[in-house]
Amino acid sequence: MKKIFLICLSAVAVLTGCEDVFEPAVENKLELENAYANATYAQGLLLNGYNRIPTNSWTYNDVATDNAVSNDRANGYRKIATGQWTSSNNPLNQWSNSRAAIQYLNLFLQVNDSVNYAIDEEVNKMFIDRMKGEALGLRALFMFHLLEAHAGRTTENELLGVPIVLEPENLNSDFNQPRASFEACMKQIYSDLDKAEELLPLDFENIASDAAVPEKYAAKGRTKDDYNRVFGETFRLRMTKRIAKGIRAKAALLAASPAYSDGNTTTWADAANYAADVIDLNGGLNGLPGNGYTWYVNTAEIDAVASGTTPKEILWRGNLETASNSVERENYPPTLFGNGRVNPTQNLVDAFPMANGYPIADGAAGYDATKPYDNRDPRLLAYVLVNGSKAGVNSSVINTASDATTNDGLNKVETSTRTGYYMRKLMRQDINLSSSSTTTQKRYQPRIRYTEIYLIYAEAANEAWGPTGNGGRAYSAYDVIKKIRNRAGVGISNGDAYLESIKGDQEKMRELIRNERRLELCFEGFRFWDLRRWKANINETANGVSIVDGAYEIIPVESRDYKPYMIYGPIPYSETLKYDQLMQNQGW
């Protein structure tokens, strides 16, 4: 951390365009004090926080779980799943990135109140309010990521988070700080989010009249033009009150979960209510879009995205990529000129119920092992390429069998599937990777999907009030799960008889909710963290299928080698070497 302050200033100096790295002109040697009169310089500190937001969807850490494996021998998640996870080899490390982001944000918060963003004093205060709210919301987000990746129990069984740093660090700072308790870290997250929500608009949108100006600004004589200048649609995709509420729900879910619940005061009811606050702002159950589960191939919506707008499924997204084919290049099957990197497991395939809603192992399911993909939950074929699926611009048939005659077959070449399946989710099928006619398309990465928030509510509400209890809200866990399954086409023919049969059983509802979360959010970077916060089995062998002459045989593909203490991640080894006050999590 000693280098972060210098790195921060160096990065900003680069952004300001020093002409001579070794002997910069006096006017170009920007110190932090320059931010007071240089609003662009100050905002550079804030924007660095945005640039460091981790992305879930494109990390593919599902390959370290029972959801998938990778055919890439060098894949970091494959390595840690098979016994190579250490405190010095941790592809899930958030320590450096998130702590650096917090340093930038603290630097920004130090100068923000004195920066000249506008000549008009009252408008300037509006800018100060808005950007302070953004910085605080982002700081809470990075604290959440630090807790998810590094919180854990010490050898004394004390549940700790990370050091809480609220002021910029410099060369004279004492970096040898102990980790704060998990509870203290959660309180800091909530405190930052409380302040962010006070300062930020629900959304960055233009208002149509002076009457719509919030009272605290209207009382100072501010007009709609002033408001739109500071809080208008130009700033879409930045932190808002709505996004802050979503982060609060995510953090509370983590804190209420079995791995953390006895070390803090956040309850399941808290998590449910925080998620419900977001859901109510989205129109309740009816706000869940019918096509939300295929957000990545809703091409009309994607192509219409512009000027910071978001499809109805998306609470917060990253920037729009206007010409992309990287996801397809990594994950298309070999015959479509891809590398087939993420291979879904038989474990995941078996988790999809039948279209009638029954798990495939249930006697009422009607599952036929000789025709395993018939009459299944429609999400299976939407998310996974199975043997005989069609894919790509020409709807090519993908043959994944062991006796296939193409490289799409099981273990044919290094880019072939290891499980008999390829990932379909996240990819557009209207992209051509042929060298003679390569094409690209638009795409975006979601930071928070509304479906995630609805699933947070379902999980927490079931734990707090049971399947049909609602804690005073207008819907229950049962209602949310019924809505999610219904929109996917599950249980339509029979009124979702399986869901009806378990709606009085909290334990069975828990299993179903966790499974729905697994299906809806597969390949989006959730399963790894979910298994750990649930204290669930993280060593389930990843299985696949070998198909020969049309006969299906389940085969083991990759064993998992996690130790019991690995429900929590490590503090980086290099940090514990430098600072003796920084206690390591047990086992690491």
From TrEMBL:
GO terms for cellular component: cell outer membrane. Pfam families: SusD-like_3 (PF14322), SusD_RagB (PF07980). It is found in: Cell outer membrane. Residues 55-219 form the SusD-like N-terminal domain. Keywords: Cell outer membrane, Membrane, Signal. Coiled coil: none annotated. It comes from the Bacteria. PROSITE patterns: PROKAR_LIPOPROTEIN. Residues 332-588 form the RagB/SusD domain. SUPFAM superfamilies: TPR-like. Belongs to the SusD family. This is Putative outer membrane starch-binding protein. It comes from Breznakibacter xylanolyticus.
